Amino acid sequence: MIPCRLALFSLAGLACVIAVFCGCALPEMPSQEATGANRLELDPDLEPPVTHVPLEYWRTHHREAVSRGEFPENECQKCHDPDTYCNNCHGYVGVKQIESVAAD
Ligand code: HEC
Ligand code: HEC
Predict the structure, then answer these.
(1) End-to-end C-alpha distance for the chain, whole angstroms
(2) Is the CB of residue 51 less than 8 Å from the CB of residue 68?
């Protein structure tokens, strides 16, 4: 009985160690406050379009607006640079890379 309990304790200990290490290994969430590759570069003077409100919803549902054609992807690039904005998050979440359209 005792060795079995010991084994359970050491398993729990191992799980804690793994959880701590995995926690540390997680990259920083992409945001406007983040640094390095996960930083979302944005001109602070820009006003977000109404489609962005609430932002928590837009963050996870913009795909729908783009694929329904309500908000063409090229329009996004009037405010967002794919190379320093969209793709810094798309790389993090594992979504396809957005191609930069030439500025007109
Ligand atoms: C008129 C300028 C403008 C246009 C056009 C625009 N955005 Fe934004 N977007 C902003 C601003 C400003 C913010 C930051 C809002 C804030 O922090 O409250 C933002 C934030 C976002 C965020 C949230 C990122 C985060 O996690 O904080 C996503 C995602 C996003 N935009 C995607 C898009 C997409 C996709 C399009 C095109 C369909 C688009 N935007 C078009 C100005 C724009
Ligand atoms: C804060 C994170 C974040 C930012 C910033 C962001 N996206 Fe996304 N994007 C996502 C996520 C998450 C998905 C997947 C959502 C889903 O499948 O419903 C996605 C999906 C998409 C898709 C659909 C891709 C597919 O394979 O069908 C398009 C198009 C898209 N985003 C455009 C943009 C554009 C353009 C920008 C920059 C203006 C942008 N996104 C910025 C997180 C982000």
Answers:
(1) 75
(2) no
- Kindly report the pTM of this predicted structure: 0.85
**Spatial CA neighbour of 87 closest among 51, 35, 41:** 41
pLDDT at 26: 74
Q: In order along the chain (104 residues), what is the average pLDDT of each group of 10 residues?
A: 67 67 74 93 96 96 95 94 97 95 67
Ligand 2: which atom is nearest the Cα of residue 64? 18
Q: For ligand 2, atom 39, name the residue with the nearest CA.
A: 86
Q: Give the ranges where the chain is alpha helix by DSSP (H).
A: 2-25, 55-67, 73-76, 86-93
- Per-residue pLDDT, 104: 52
Distance from residue 40's CA to the centre of ligand 2 (Å): 13
Cα 24 to middle of ligand 1, angstroms? 29
Residue 8: how many other CB atoms lie within 10 Å: 10
